[in-house]
Design brief:
Blueprint lengths: L1 E5 L4 H14 L2 E5 L9 H7 L8 E4 L2 H5 L6 E4 L5 E2 L10 E4 L8 H6 L2 E4 L11 H15 L6
Parallel strand pairs: 1-2, 1-6, 2-3, 4-6, 4-7, 5-7
Helix pairs in contact: 1-2, 1-5
Length: about 150
């Protein structure tokens, strides 16, 4: 299982997701351009010394990423049609998240095999990217018996 970030904008969010992924055994793909330099101290600070424990793949753009896809792309979006608690995850799913400011463009929505939303209380817009990734990965690992021993 992998977490994929489409053009992430905030280094601290990426660092936190790298730490999450290292601890739970998921790889991370980063689709560029990103809103910060990869060498940004905020990535290292949030990821701490966990960055060396997660497989990271950087892709020059969306097309370069799509060329590597072998599993099902599960896009998490506020425009998602299926609730996370009504979604059946597979062990090789790719959990894709859009950028913090603009989400994912229509072309990414169109390519996704499944569009999923995390239900929120009425009147509230969205969760932090790292929190959303944590919720998504936890539920997917629970369903597929993928939690680390």
């Amino acid at each position: 299982m992998r977490i994929v970030l489409y053009q992430p904008e905030i280094a601290g969010n990426v660092g936190a997701i790298l730490r999450l992924s290292a601890c739970l055994g998921a790889g991370v793909d980063l689709i560029e351009p990103m809103g910060f330099a990869w060498s940004d101290r905020k990535v290292a600070r949030a990821g701490m010394d966990y960055i060396d424990h997660v497989p990271i793949t950087r892709h020059a753009d969306w097309d370069a990423f799509v060329a590597t896809v072998t599993g099902r792309i599960v896009l998490f979006t506020t425009r998602g049609a299926t609730r996370i608690d009504q979604t059946q995850f597979l062990p090789d799913d790719i959990l894709l998240f859009g950028s913090e400011g603009s989400g994912a463009p229509d072309s990414v929505h169109d390519r996704a095999d499944l569009r999923v939303r995390i239900p929120l209380r009425p009147g509230l817009r969205s969760l932090n990217l790292g929190v959303s990734a944590g919720i998504a990965l936890a539920e997917a690992l629970r369903q597929t018996n993928g939690w680390p021993e």
